[in-house]
Amino acid sequence: MRVAVLYGGISGEREVSLSSGKSVIQALEGKGHEVVAIDFHPERAEEIFNLDVEVAVIALHGKYGEDGRVQALLELADIPYTGSGVLASALAMDKARSKLHFEKAGIRIARDVLIERGDDIADKVRQWGGEFPCVVKPAQEGSSNGLTIAMDDAMLRSGIELAFQADDAVLIEQFIKGREVTVPVLGQKGAEKALPIIEIIPKNEFYDYESKYAVGGSEHICPADFDEVTTQKLQEWAVLAHQVLGCSGYSRSDFLVPEIGHPVILETNTLPGMTATSLFPDGARAIGIDYPELVESFINLAITRHQATSNNIK
Fold first, then answer.
1. Rounded distance, CA 81 to CA 71, Å?
2. What are the tens digits of pLDDT across the range 165-207?
3. What is the DSSP letter of 270?
4. Is there a catalytic annotation at residue 269?
5. What does residue 18 show for φ and ψ, rounded to 5 degrees?
6. Is-catalytic flag, 13?
C-alpha cells in the first residue's frame, strides 16, 4: 500500500516522535509498502489534504499529534489513520478529565487538584493541603515533560511554575510509592485484548524522561511478576480504560502498583511510543508479534475502523 507516516511535530516529545517515525518507516518499507514521510507542522496542515495515500500511520506524540487535532484533519481528508478518533484522543490527552472517567468506571485514581491558567494558585495550593511528596505535572503533556516530585511547599510552587511553561493546566497529584507498570491494549472495538504487563525499573530514582528514552535508562520486565489477581486486575482495567475513553485500535495504560491495595491508573496513551526502547513493542513481542507485524496490525485496524465508519454514514 501507499502509506503516509506523520511524525516529528512540534510538541515537547518531538525527538521521541522522530525516533518512532523512523522505526515505523523502516518496518513499513520492510513489508513492501511505499511510504510518504511527513515531518508534520501545524503551519503546513495543507499537506494532509494533498496526500494521495491509502492509510496514514500517526507516529506523533503530545500536542498537535496525540490530542485529536491531526486526527480531525485526517477525518476531513477522509484518510484512514491509526490509533483513536478525535474525541478519544483529546480526552485521553487531558489527564484531569480522563481521570474523572476512570473513577466513574471504578478504576482507582490518585487524589489531585487541577490548576488552570488564571486560577488563584495560592488557593489551589491550600486545597492541596500540604501533602508531601506530591507530583506536579502539566495536565496535557507526556513523556514526563515539566514533571516535578515536590518535597515541600517551595518545590511545589516552583513545580507549578515549570509545568505552566508546558501547558495551560497543571495537576498536583498524590505521590504513590509502588511498582511502575504499563499494559498495552490491542484489537478491534469490542474485541480488545490486554497484552502482557510490563514492569519498568528505572535506573534513576524516578521514571523521568531520561529513564524512558535513553538506551539503558530503564529495565523492562515482560511479563511482569505479579500474582494472578493483580495481573487480572491490571489487564481488566487497561481494557476498561481504553473502552471508557472510546479508544480505537490500540492504547497503553500506565499504573502504579503499591504494596498494599489496588493499582492506581496514571494515564492512557492513545499513541504510545514506538521507538527501539518503547514499551508497546515489548508487550507484543512477548506474545510472538514482531515489530513489523505490529505496525501492520495497526494499519489493518485503521482501515477496518474507517470502513465501518463509512458504512454507518452511508
1. 8
2. 989 999 999 999 999 999 999 999 999 999 999 999 987 665 5
3. S
4. yes
5. -60, -40
6. yes
